[in-house]
Amino acid sequence: MDRDRSTDGGILRDSLDLWQPIPILQPDLEGRLATSVERLFDGLLGIALKCFQGSDSSARVRFLAVVKKIIKARQRVACLRCVMCVVLAPRARDNEAELEELAQSKSHRREQVKRFFENYRPPQTSREVPVGQVTEDITKSSAALLETQCKFWQVADIAAGKAKATLDPLLAQDLTKGQVQTNSKQSWIVRGARERKPQRWTLAERFRQEVAESACNQWDVRRTSSLTKPMLPPALKSSKGQSVQKHVQLGLGKSLSAPSLHSRHGGIGGCQPGSLESSSSLSGSHSNHSAAMNPVMAMTFNESWKAEAKDKNKKKDGAPMTRYMTACERGGILPSPLDFTTGLSTRLNAVNWALADCDLIPVAAMFRTVPQVLEVDLSGNTLLTDKSVVPLLQKMMRNPACSTLSCLRLRQCIRLGHPSVELLVSLIASPQGLSMLKVLDISGIHLPVKVQLELCRALGEHSNLENLTLADTGLGSNPAVRRCLDALFNCNTLTALDLSWNSFGDEVFASIGTNVAHAHVQLRSLSMSSCSSSDTSASVMLEFFSKARSLIYLDLSMNRLDLSAALILADALSAHPCLTELDVSRNPLGAPGAHFLTRLFAVSKLERLHCMEAFDMGDAFRQHFFQFCNPEGEYDLNMAKPYSRAVLRILLKLCQKLDLGIKQAFTDLACEGCVLTEPVLDEHGTFQVPSAGRMAFVFSTTKANGPDIYEESRDGIAEMLQRRGDLCKIRLRLDKAVLLIPVFDTLQDKLPLIDALAKNFVVDYAHVEMFCKLGKTMMIPTIIQRLLHACSSGSVGRHMCLRLASTQAQYRQILQRTMLSLSFTPSNPSMHYTLYLDETCDFHIAECLRTLDRWEANVAIRRGFFDISQRGNQSQVRNERYEGRRPFFRSILDWELPLIGKLEFDFVGGPRTAPGTMQMTDKVFEEFFQHVLRSECRAWQQFEALRAVSPYIYLASSQLRQLLGAIYDPEVRMHIFHVFYYRLTDVWNVKVCRARFSSDEYAQLLKKLGPVKFFPYIQPEQAQLDLDFSVHDEKLAVNLLVMLQQKEGALLLEPRYIREDGTEDKLVTGVPRAWARFSDLPRAGTFSAKYFVAPEKRNMKTRSDFLAAYGRWHAPPLKQEDVSWWSSLSDVSLDIIRFLEVMRERYRDNLHEAFRDIDGDGGNGLITLKEFEEHCDRLEDSRFRGNNRRERFRAIFRYLDATLEGSISIEEWLQLDTVKRELDRQTGELHDFFIWRYGGIAEAWAVLEQSGDGEMSEEEWSNGLKELGYFGASMELYSVLDTTNDGTISFEEFGCIARRAQGVPGSAL
């Protein structure tokens, strides 16, 4: 029994839960449905509901009442929620008052939240909104939603790198009340994820700014203090040193400080203005004297020197500042006001000071007496050479200060040569040298080849080194670079390593990967920017990162990483326990690379992903790549390549997730030099795969866990498809969505990221709303239409996403592009598809159809069905065209869907109608038909509406015939027939509907649906088939035709066989009997024939068996009286139609009386050729005039003598009755057509008769009906109306249409 045919309320609820065209309802300003398309949807749905409720109409009344509220309230989002609550919740359905309250509360809450964010959350500012400031009418539920949104933006703020405690929230300003005083404990912090970054001033710009703002602008300043804010040394804090402190503050009166290029507050040492005021108040005279001195810097060092000389605890010649000033005086050098040289800091920080050798030599003189030096940073001083650096390093040797140095930075000191490097190696290797060194930065210094290995060995044996930077040092030019790196990685304390801008090859990257994976290596940060010497070098290293369990930061920017490398990263880092930041900027990953990296970002612990210019270059237009959500297909893997090993590991993970064995998922396995065994995990949780050999197989996850398409209910198929999508896709969490905000902001082209989210993730409405707010206004339609199908909230969530459109034009644009995905129903997927794969909604439909195709193919294999596919691959997809060409693949099941391009095909599959399913009642169908007839839509809009409601209705063949008559576009008619073919309740009567198609249209239907699936199993009489042996299903159709012909003893008239070479076989002895075996059929060539059989020879059992075995229909046992035997006017000649009309006129529509009259009194029940010719000679009718009168009658006799026995039985004679029924029906349909279009026969005559001579020619008739879109055998009807056989129709003859529509033959009028 069909599970779709129940009449209880549960079916109504389930059907509406899957119904998608609800979003098309768009009321206008007056509360009415705006377009005829929407009115058609509304009417068809209401009528379709009758099919599920039986005689009870309360459900329909309730539903239509809710639709009316949608139109009235114009709050479609909230009211649609009410619709779903009414339909899905029985308690809410019975409580109308609760429905009203629900509608008001939800719509009111949304308006308040929308108003709140418009008033209080500017796009790039930080606001603090108190609870009391929110408008009074926000309910508790509204406040809860608002609080959730506020927490969202707060998390976004924290994700941007700014802790909550460091934020300086601004107070919200009410436009009417001005400034509002708030309490921080009763406030919500709402901050945008994007804030303006602080402006970075250059050195000269900041210097000019501070000099302009200061009171003294005549100083001769050459140097400034460091970036840090140092503390005053104890010597300057004593009571006896008040004057010294005063002079260190440059002796300024008031609250002014010396200009500084780097210090935060402007004064030397970072002194606060308050301290300046207090010191200046103690001694005003000294301040005035100091302000008058020039230059100030010289005075400062002079006073400090004197103050240091007064210290009795130190000797004059041993003080560091004394030695420094002495060296400056001897060399005639202006002292540099560094915090280190002034004694304010123990850190020599001279970053980007442009120091020369003369500036550094006096500093080196201080090292002999300095008791402690924590840091030496000379980065960016490109003028320094060995002349000054070598003495500085020599002073460090065997000095107490050397044992305290923890940080040495010589970055970009590019003039340093071999002496400095050798001395540095000695310092690092010596036990008396830099034993406490933790940070070393020598990037930009070219290391001589002969000292590289020695340096790396010294660094590897160092016991305290933690941070090492060897960027741009020329390591790649050393032939022994692998030995150097192996020695370097022996350092157990190293946690940060930078090897950027060194050119490495494949072997070096493999060595780095092997060393990084060692257990003793505890690297937390690794930078390998711009190190790859070829396109594939860096990829060798990537898979080893899965074993580097301590990594937190990884920089792989500018390494020519392509799409394959992105897949390797996605596999290696997906389960990494510590990695939180990854930089792959400026790698040619292309748009497909966004798919892999976004999945990696979602499933791993990554918090920051830097991918600037990574998705805008490289494989942006690569069409084929591995797809996580649809991995089925054929694989040929070279296990020596990291990419192949990563693909195999991903497939094994998917098998583990779906609980599939190797034998279930991997079929047609062929291994060469390797073996695929059951997956084994290593100690890091990574699957062990072979590292050599080749492996070819077909991977499929649907063979073991797919549903039975032919037995599963409509809701079961949709549920299984949704469940499979949830297993293969990732549900985007809120915290990960927040962390994606910086990534979204930095991308110049944001579409690759949106596409990656649409094809790999399940998103919520909040995510779509977030991206719409972050994107530009013109991008909103693109974002919505690409993420719409991925929304997890069902039809209500998708409808809310549609409401994010800012204008009605955007709404209609989105709806037009996403209508196919909105109305797609897996329970009835059979139709013609035109998919643009660059649109994510169409791509999603293609993936769903491939999954359904696999499920149905697997069911056919398990059940042992015959292969009725077009290519012999059990696929339901036919007539594939990609970019207008036939693609070169054996099956679409094994084809990797490209990212772009136009894909067209016919899908002919899905569940068949179960036995006992009831079609629409005549009353309901008449109302349904009138809605379609009165609709003011175009033909394709009618098709969209009918396709949307097709899963909820079943039709009889006669009802489908009548419905097709209301469609005036012949192409759309065939599409509608395609959609409803598997919704027919009496497929054995499908000839009633098929007879209305012309011969050419019938041939197109055979090509569209397939000659086996659309084979005339029950009524093959007079069927003309033109088949190609090179196509699998057409070859099978020939086999079926021959088998049926031999079973029934039928005739194949006018057989024609064209061989592969183009020669014709006359088939003089008839069709070969060996063709009843499929294996004996020719491999190529074409065959055509017409099937004829006498009614008494019909084998109904064979026909029913073929219908079940080949057509896969569940038909009941059929008898001849169960079938409405029919004929098609296009299958018979015009002479037969004219002869029938003569018989009807002469014998008043009684064919039995005509048979008895021709057979004669005392006849034997058979009409011989002689009796037939004698009777025809007595006929005096203008329709059979001419010299070939006798030949025409003999052709009619041969048509009626189906057995070619030389006589016509009563059963064969009554074949004219099937032609008569079709002729009467077509006449009535033509009459109705004229009434629908013009209101009467006279009005139709005025339109069709163009010449004005009172006669309608055959050309006027044919062209007129074609332009009007009439569906029927127009030329056959013309021959019937032309009773005088003069080639024209008069108005009197044209008026016979009305009388024939009443069933009255011409002679009785």
Automatic annotation (TrEMBL):
Keywords: GTPase activation, Leucine-rich repeat, Repeat. GO terms for molecular function: calcium ion binding; GTPase activator activity; small GTPase binding. Residues 256-289 are annotated as: Disordered. The keyword Ubl conjugation does not apply. InterPro entries: EF-hand-dom_pair, EF_hand_dom, Leu-rich_rpt, LRR_dom_sf, RanGap. It holds the Pfam family LRR_6. Residues 1188-1223, 1275-1304 form the EF-hand domain. SUPFAM superfamilies: EF-hand, RNI-like. The keyword Metal-binding does not apply. One of its GO terms (biological process) is nucleocytoplasmic transport. Residues 274-289 have a biased composition (Low complexity). PROSITE patterns: EF_HAND_2 (PS50222). It comes from the Eukaryota. One of its GO terms (cellular component) is nucleus. PANTHER family: RAN GTPASE-ACTIVATING PROTEIN 1. This is NLRP13 protein. It comes from Symbiodinium natans. The lineage of its organism: Eukaryota, Sar, Alveolata, Dinophyceae, Suessiales. The gene is NLRP13.
